[in-house]
Amino acid sequence: MNYSTRSYIDSKQKPSFWLLHSLGWAAYVLIFVVDNLFFYRDFNKLGIDVFYPLLLAGSFAALLTWPLRHVYRHCWSLRPRWLIAAIVLSSLVVALLWTPMKNLAVWYFYEDFDVLGFLRGHISDPGFKWYMLFMSVSYAFFMILVWSSLYFGINYHYRLVNEKQLHLDAVRLSHVAQIKMLRYQINPHFLFNTLNAISTLVLKGDKEKANGMLTRLSTFLRFSLDNDPEKKIRLYEELKALMLYLEIEKTRFDERLSVKFHVEPRTESLLVPSLLLQPLVENSIKFAIAQMASGGVITISAYCQNNCLHLQVADNGPALDNSHLDAHNHGHQPNSGLVNKGGVGVQNIIERLKVLYPNQHDFKVTKEKRQGYKVLIVIPMEYP
User: Under 8 Å CB-to-CB from 139, ≥6 apart: which residues?
Assistant: First the structure.
């Protein structure tokens, strides 16, 4: 992030320096006016007129501390001990300048001190000593230290807020990029298999089926590309896209493939990541249905339980041929050979779930009693 952008963030979040600076010294004047009126009233000769010397003192302090802002801007990169030394030294210099000005203002109102004559070098009071100009310099030094501490404290706070926001933005952008990368892995993976099937149909001379597959493929890809990978879609739309894919596959397998849906009506409006189920169905077709001469069945289920959406894809293929899914079972260490056999589809889903639902999802693969595998995805219920 360049400097201008950073300055834009600071200006959008941090209150104006002039606002805080003015309010701070105005509070100083108000507090001491109240003190003199209510707590030191027996020693306050001026009454409400004590406001004027205090207003002058506060104005002098505001004027003298304003340049400190520019000094401190060049001190951020100093080591802590040098930073502390710079703050102490700067506060001392300002206190040495402020104290005589403040004392002269107070003397003018309290003692009728001839300030103009004093500035011209004429001192009418024989008891006047030069060191008296710096009486209460320690008090002034403490006040300037308080101002400096507030300046650094407020700026450190907003810098930390900005750094935290930048970190969150970076994490979010990283997640978005990761989601897009994972989502777009699906398209070439699926496209290769489908084009390979179309090529086979063309070689066999079945132009009608090949043309139908191309039409369905274009519709499916249009749906895929039109959806933002970062956004989620309703389950109804996900199932509709899945049907487009299955129509392509049923053209390849004819009667060898049968699909059953068990979807609770209330689940259709829930949000899911787009193209979440298609890789699972594709793996079932590749490693189960394709290995069977007939009677291949894929069952897709969706239901709600314990405030979570359960999505399930099951097949009745040979257990040995889809055993690659064991490698991706939640909580098990994958075998490298099985992972390679499974391709990018299942691993893609696992990575997307980790990004989208950190510590809020489950991915479980179970082997059916007789044959086939069942994949279960559990994610939080989300409404549009």
Answer: none
* Cα 190 to Cα 290: distance, rounded to the nearest angstrom: 15
Residue 313 belongs to a domain with what CATH number? Answer: 3.30.565.10
Residue 175, pLDDT score: 59
How far is it, in rounded angstroms, from Cα 381 to Cα 302?
12
15: which residues sit within 8 A by CB, 6+ positions away? none
Domain contains 95: yes
Cβ(313)–Cβ(275) below 8 Å:
no
Q: Are residues 159 and 274 in the same domain?
A: no
Specify the 3-state DSSP secondary structure of 301.
Answer: strand
What is the domain extent for residue 284?
A: 231-380
Rounded to an integer, what distance in angstroms lies between the CA atom of residue 380 and that of residue 374?
20
Q: Which residues, at least 6 apart from 65, have a Cβ–Cβ distance to it below 8 Å?
A: 21, 25, 94, 144, 147
Beta bridge mates, 257: 296
DSSP assignment of 54-69 equals: HHHHHHHHHHHHHHHH
CB crowding 100-114: b at 16 or more within 10 Å, else e: bbbbbbbbbbeeebe
278 contacts 259 by C-beta, under 8 angstroms: no
The residue out of 130, 146, 167 marking a domain boundary is 167
pLDDT average, residue stretch 356-367: 88
15: helix, strand or coil: coil
Judge whether 185 lies within some domain.
no
Number of domains in the chain: 2
Give the pLDDT confidence score for residue 304 in this predicted structure: 96
Does residue 188 form part of some domain? no
* 256 domain residue, yes or no: yes
Angstrom distance (rounded) from CA 300 to CA 315: 9
Question: pTM, whole model, 2 decimals?
Answer: 0.50
Query: Phi, psi (5° rounding) for residue 372?
Result: 90, 170
pLDDT tier, 94 (very low <50, low <70, confident <90, very high otherwise):
very high
Question: Are 21 and 28 a contacting pair, CB within 8 Å?
Answer: no
- Calpha distance 34→15 (Å, rounded): 27
